[in-house]
Amino acid sequence: MWQEGLRKITHNNKMNNVCVWTNLMKQTFASGKTEKLVHQCLLELGLPSEKNDVIEPLDFTFDKFYVLYHKLCPRNDIEELFQAITQGKADSINIDQFILFLNEKQRDPRLNEILYPLYDEKRAAEIIVTYEQDENARNE
């Protein structure tokens, strides 16, 4: 049923027969970048970077994938948002700034405040404890 629903909304007949993995690879790694840039990024990471080279799975760690992903698909919007919150004066945000961000930027203002109350220090701290990986930043 899921597959049929997707096929109905896909107007390009050629796309109906493309492997999902192939599509994902094209979107993730190409993202409008030239092959030369991709090869250069691979070279900078110490990975095989010629056209027909093969990357050994053990050499392609998650950390290397993460760096490659950010080189090919930078998220400048996140950096701009962070700079707006801190006004460029800090390397991290405090809990008050985080609460303000959650309530003013992240939360849908149309939500009912009784059913979906505004974020407070307790809820913000729960989010930080759950998702912040750096223990020092979490404790700050």
UniProtKB/TrEMBL annotation:
<feature type="domain" description="Phosphoinositide phospholipase C beta 1-4-like EF-hand">
    <location>
        <begin position="23"/>
        <end position="73"/>
    </location>
</feature>
<protein>
    <recommendedName>
        <fullName>Phosphoinositide phospholipase C beta 1-4-like EF-hand domain-containing protein</fullName>
    </recommendedName>
</protein>
<dbReference type="InterPro" id="IPR011992">
    <property type="entry name" value="EF-hand-dom_pair"/>
</dbReference>
<dbReference type="Pfam" id="PF22631">
    <property type="entry name" value="PLCB1-4-like_EFh"/>
</dbReference>
<dbReference type="InterPro" id="IPR053945">
    <property type="entry name" value="PLCB1-4-like_EFh"/>
</dbReference>
